[in-house]
Amino acid sequence: MRCKEPLRISVALICLILALPIPAFGESNSDEVLVLKDATFALELLSPLSTKANKKNDKFECKVLSPVEYAGAIVSGHLRKVKNSGKANGKSELDLAFDTITLADGRTGNFNAQVQEVNDVANASNTGLADPEGTVRGKSRVKISVKRAVKGALIGAAIGAIIAGPKGAMVGAAIGAGAAVTTTLAMNGPELEFKSGTQFTVITNSPSHRKPAP
């Protein structure tokens, strides 16, 4: 039994190393932090999204409105899930995953965030909030929920359990789950749509580190 323990640890370490990104020859990963954890951003959707027209893995982009030091930066993401109920009493859903942020000076980093609030131009009303240009934006009635990717948690837990037993599994699951967070936007009805100009208030889940230049 004692001989098997080092072997198990070695196999786990090899799996972990293979899962890590490997920089190209002569290149090193940067530790520069572009965005801090728990930072609040106001994003404006640059193209429409809907459960009728879009499909899983479709890309989308948002322009940063605030904080002012990031204004004009572009946040890119993709749709992890699209569900169009097609029924008045059904539930339509869009799962948004934010991937990267590109600053005005060209620096790019990962961007992991979840939606806290939606100001939807489709539901604008006199009780909405006016932006600096005077456009009234009403708060959407869309239900918001946050999901963490199960796959990442399971992989992390498996590696952690091999190395350090149950305690290691808990730590590994936490690390794996933190790598992929999505926001589910849902509404009762045949379809869900967000027009260009819809604003999302999001909060970052982890620091954004600068990606090495290609």
Task: Give a quick set of tags describing it.
alpha+beta; 214 residues; eleven-stranded antiparallel β-sheet; two-stranded antiparallel ribbon; single chain
What would you say about this model in short?
With 214 residues, the protein is α+β, with helices and mostly antiparallel strands. The protein is built from two helices and 15 strands.
Could you please describe the fold and organization of this structure?
This protein has one domain (39-129, 140-207). Helix content is 21%, strand content 38%. It has helices at 4-19, 150-177; strands at residues 33-35, 40-45, 49-50, 59-66, 74-83, 91-102, 108-110, 113-120, 129-130, 136-139, 143-148, 181-188, 193-194, 199-204, 208-209. Strands 2, 4, 5, 6, 7, 8, 9, 10, 11, 12 and 14 form an eleven-stranded antiparallel beta sheet that branches. It has a two-stranded antiparallel ribbon with strand order 1-15. A two-stranded antiparallel ribbon has the order 3-13. β6 and β7 (108-110) form a beta hairpin. α1 (4-19) crosses α2. It starts with a helix and ends in a 5-residue tail after the last strand.
